């Protein structure tokens, strides 16, 4: 099993833990740390949608809170079973740009595995605001 396949399997598991009673749109994420550990995240909704946290940010924030260094994350897999393909929202793209390694990849999959896409951060957020 490739690292990408391993990450996607972990993202699928994470999607089972989602709290999405309003949108019914589960999303799971799996983040690869510099030392090879995988940290999961899932979307957690709130009735006040602005307080909702996406799976991608949940994984990144969990990894940081567990002591992993910002800027060292190598890859992130994102899975959403209710659409053929998922891609990160703008807020997640900006957070990924700051917290992941500059050469990191983001692997996205929905219900159609044939539609799986892998992007670089530059592809996801060209011309991004980057203070570093």
Helix/strand/pairing category: alpha+beta
CATH architectural designation: 3-Layer(aba) Sandwich
CATH homologous superfamily assignment: Cytidine Deaminase, domain 2
Radius of gyration: 14 Å
Q: Which geometry do the CA atoms define?
A: globular
Q: In terms of per-residue confidence, which ranges show pLDDT below 50 for 5 or more consecutive residues? A: none
- Side by side, the strands of the main sheet go 2-1-3-4-5
How do the helices and strands line up, and which of them pair or pack?
Elements: H1 3-15, E1 28-32, E2 38-42, H2 55-65, E3 73-79, H3 90-99, E4 100-109, E5 117-120, H4 121-124
Parallel strand pairs: 3-4
Antiparallel strand pairs: 1-2, 1-3, 4-5
Account of the 3D structure:
By secondary structure, the chain is α+β, with helices and mostly antiparallel strands. The chain has a single domain (3-124), classed as Cytidine Deaminase, domain 2. 29% of the residues lie in helices and 23% in strands. The protein contains four helices and five strands. The protein has helices at 3-15, 55-65, 90-99, 121-124, and strands at residues 28-32, 38-42, 73-79, 100-109, 117-120. A five-stranded mixed sheet has the order 2-1-3-4-5. Helix 3 (90-99) links the parallel strand 3 (73-79) and strand 4 (100-109). The longest helix is centred in the first third of the chain and has 13 residues, at 3-15. The radius of gyration is 14 Å and the shape is globular. It starts with a helix and ends in an 8-residue tail after the last helix. The model has no long low-confidence stretch (mean pLDDT 95).
């Amino acid at each position: 099993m490739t690292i990408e396949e391993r990450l996607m399997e972990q993202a699928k598991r994470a999607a089972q833990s989602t709290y999405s009673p309003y949108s019914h749109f589960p999303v799971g994420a799996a983040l690869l740390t510099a030392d090879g550990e995988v940290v999961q995240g899932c979307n957690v909704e709130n009735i006040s949608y602005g307080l909702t946290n996406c799976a991608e940010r949940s994984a990144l924030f969990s990894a940081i809170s567990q002591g992993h260094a910002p800027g060292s994350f190598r890859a992130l897999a994102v899975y959403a079973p209710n659409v053929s393909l998922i891609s990160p929202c703008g807020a997640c793209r900006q957070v990924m740009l700051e917290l992941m390694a500059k050469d990191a990849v983001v692997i996205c999959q929905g219900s159609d595995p044939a539609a799986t896409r892998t992007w670089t951060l530059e592809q996801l957020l060209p011309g991004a605001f980057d203070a570093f």
